[in-house]
Amino acid sequence: MKVAFVSGNVKGIGKYITLKLLELGFYVPIHYNKSQDLALEFQKEIKQKYNLVVDLFKADLTDYNQSQELINIFIKKYNKLDVLINNVGDYLYKNLLELSYFEFKYIIDSNLMSAFILTQGFLDYIKESIIFMGFVGTHNIRTNINTTAYNIAKTGILIYAKSLAKLLACKNINVNVIGLGVAENSITKPINEIPFKRTATYNEINNLVEFLLKNKYITGQLIELAGGWLL
Q1: Partners of 56 in beta bridges
Q2: Cα torsion at 101, 163, 211, 113 (round to 10°)?
Q3: Cα separation of 114 and 119, whole Å?
Q4: CA 52 to chain centre
Q5: Cα separation, 119 vs 173, whole angstroms
Q6: Which of 94, 35, 43, 82 is nearest to 60 (CA)?
Q7: Which in 22, 54, 132, 207 has the greatest CB count within 10 A?
Q8: What is the spatial distance between Cα 118 and Cα 99, in angstroms, rounded to a whole number?
Q9: What digits encode the pLDDT tens for the residues 145-202?
C-alpha cells in the first residue's frame, strides 16, 4: 500500500484531501497539533468508512524538534513516503502597519518554514510526488496591505518548490504548487472579486490533487484554482 502524509489534515482542505487519497488506495495517517478531539473523531470516521485504523501524529510543525521527532517516528514505522502534501499554514488578515514582529514571524513559520522543515526531513524517503498548498497570484509580485506576510510566505513556497522540482526530476519525483484562491473554508471570501462568483469546492481541489499525482511530467508549476480571481 502506498503511504501519503498530509500535514494538518483533521479538518478543512487537509481532511478532504485525505479522504480522496484513501479512496485512491493510499494509507494516510492523521496529523494534528492542538485539535486532538477532531483527530480522534476523524480516526473513527475513517475506521467506519474504510475499515482502516490510521495512526495519529501530534506535532507543532513550526517547532523544529517536534517536526524531526514526527519524521523519525514516521520513517521508523513505514520506512517510506510516496506522497507528501504540505497543507499546514495559518492565515492572517491584518494591515501591515499594525503587524507585530511575532505575528509576521508566525505566519512565515506556519506557512514556509513548516513546509521546508517537513519536506527536507522526508526528502530521502519520498518516492513519487510533493504538493504544496500555495496561493493564487504568487507567480507575479502583487501587493496586499492586509496579507503581506502570507503573500511573502507563499511566494517563498513557490521558489522552494521550483528549486526542488529541478533537483528531484532525476528521481522521477514531481513537485508542484496549487495556487488556491478562495475555498469553502477560507476566512475571508471576496466573492464579488471572483469572476466565477463562488468559492473553490473541496471536490475541485481533490480533482487537481489527483491530476498532479497522475501526471508525473508536470513539475515545478503553480497551478491556480481560483475561478479567475486576480487575473
Answers
A1: 30
A2: -20
A3: 8
A4: 23
A5: 13
A6: 35
A7: 132
A8: 27
A9: 999 999 999 999 999 999 999 999 999 999 999 999 999 989 889 999 999 999 999 9
